[in-house]
Design brief:
6 helices, elongated, Chorismate lyase, 3-stranded antiparallel beta sheet, Arc Repressor Mutant, subunit A
Length: 254
Amino acid sequence: MGTTQLEKVPEPKYWHLKTVLMDALDSEFEVGEILPNERELASRFGVARATLRQALEQLELEGRLQRRRGVGTTVAPPRVGVFVGPTSGSWPGAADDAWLTVGCVEAAAPAAVAHMLGTGADEPVHTVRRIRSMGGQSVATELLYVPGASVPGLPSDLTPTDHVPAVLRELHTLGLDGEDRAVELGSARAEDAKQLDRLPGAPVLVVTTRYVSGGRVTAVAVATYRADTCRLTFGDSGAMEITHQGQERHAAAS
């Protein structure tokens, strides 16, 4: 086959510089150490400051650097593993669930979620927002969608305080047949970005989980993880975890 047009395109200068900077971070700098200013770095590596900024921005996206106001650019600390595999085949809100619930509303689900649930485009569903933190930092935010048909025993006069526990309690009365997950790269929506301390549009990892009971999809969870701090690994069982740089562990078989 002939050479494609893309194969003729040279590697961008900033991308090559990023690789060189990564080697320097590994061999010359300690975690938390402040990097020299842009002028010094550009002079050292013989590049324009615009090229340097592109490389630094890419390293920040990949979680290798942190930019802090009043401090400068520092080497990011090691990442901590975040397990997202099945938890003993249990519904959200189980005793060993690592998520913190922060609220619940009734609203129409996004079109893709409504399609999975088999609900109408404008049909309101119980939408539970949850947050997951590690080391004092929010690493993920989640929306759990539960249609009314899945929790028919839910009282109609619930207060905002009672809404979340009542929805989860009703889910736990159902038999869980199984669950499946899909992962894709996405962009942080405004509300998710605020919860994760990121800018809107920042790259995120979106993990969609479908919960099946009675032969149908009973609930759908859409979790958004910071892509700058997370990477995914898959065990032989198909279970999945998000592992931070420098640490790897396999999910136990469900």
